[in-house]
Amino acid sequence: MKILVDIVHPADVLFFLNPIRRWQAGGHEVIVGSRRKDVTVGLLDAFSIEHTILSSAGKNLAGLALELVMRDIAMLRFVRAERPDVLAGFGGVAISHVGKLLGVPSVSFYDTERAPLQLSLTLPFISHFYVPESYDGPIAPNRTHRFRGTKDLSYFHPDNFSPDRATAVKSGLVEGEPNYFIRLVGWQANHDVGLVGWDAATLESFVSYLSAQGRVHISSELPLPASVEPFRYCGGEAQVHHLLAYCTCYIGESATMATESVLLGVPAIYATSDRRCYTDDLEALGLLETLTQVDYESLCSATSRVCMQDRTIIEARLDEFMRDKINLADYVAESVLDHADQAG
């Protein structure tokens, strides 16, 4: 089979990395259409995944609208030139449109309920739509399938990823003292409309508080205030999770990275007013703390609280969460091939 994978976000690289390796090991041809957004291209290059850049992320709502049109056109040309048997993506706007137009099955995986624009542009056209069991947003009637777990289990299932301490140290881990990881997002995705991040004063005060206790690592999609710029993570894109796995705590605006931290056994705080089905699940199990009102006092209090948790209790809760979960990489690889087979 010839499989086209649409990669539009850094997390998509990790989501499809192991399925791509499985497809290639099985003798299938994989072609990737990528997008310039944050570290997406860098991650693809770091993992030696050949790809063709089809668009660059828009800077605002108007920019995203223009990019949508341009990416649809670029994807149409790409599919016509490559003639794949199936299209796969996470979100799936462009592949849903092009797949419908050209009669090629499109398979989308997704997990964000509060994304009305993306979902309204995708669901009428997508061939097959996959979401977590707890997802409670709009679906594609008679074309939606549910899987056990979170998207992160495609990369962070214990069978797929093992952190390496030596790599963590090379990436900035300071041994012998607490290490804290902060992730700040750009709030420019279509599902971020109306949301804003931490204010600069809160960030600066919180970093000052943490840095008095240990080492702080910041990953940010946006420029940082000069006072905290020295704390920016400067390691490789593909090595950041090795560092994260050995951190004392994760605090940030990224739901994806909060979930990744949980799966790595790291105490995590999801500090934003946004929500996801999977963060709700993890919070209910006591594996994640969420802060909907983010200020200096609440950040300090939550960090102190989660860092005092008994690690054996966290491990037991994670074992409970993982008990019925699948290795999603296998599931994704098999599902996409099944739809390609059915179409053929």
Q: What's the N-to-C terminus distance?
A: 9 Å
Helix content: 40-55%
Domain unit count: 2
Topology pattern, helix = H, strand = E: EHEHEHEHEHEEHEHEHEHEHEHHH
What would CATH call the homologous superfamily of the largest domain?
A: Glycogen Phosphorylase B
Overall number of strands: 12
Radius of gyration: 20 Å
CATH topology of the largest domain: Rossmann fold
Total helices: the number is 13
| Widest sheet: strand ordering | 3-2-1-4-5-6-7
Averaging pLDDT over every residue, what do you get?
92
Give the name of the CATH architecture of the largest domain.
Answer: 3-Layer(aba) Sandwich
Give a structural overview.
The protein is an alpha/beta fold and 344 residues long. It folds into two domains: 2-155 and 327-343, Glycogen Phosphorylase B (Rossmann fold, 3-Layer(aba) Sandwich), CATH 3.40.50; 165-322, 3-Layer(aba) Sandwich (Rossmann fold), CATH 3.40.50. The protein has helices at 10-25, 40-46, 61-82, 93-102, 116-122, 165-170, 200-211, 240-245, 255-263, 277-284, 296-307, 311-322, 328-343, and strands spanning 2-6, 29-36, 52-56, 86-90, 106-109, 128-132, 144-147, 179-184, 215-220, 249-252, 268-271, 289-291. Helix 1 (10-25) runs parallel beside helix 2 (40-46), helix 1 (10-25) packs across helix 13 and helix 3 (61-82) packs across helix 4. It is globular, with a radius of gyration of 20 Å. The relative contact order is 0.13.
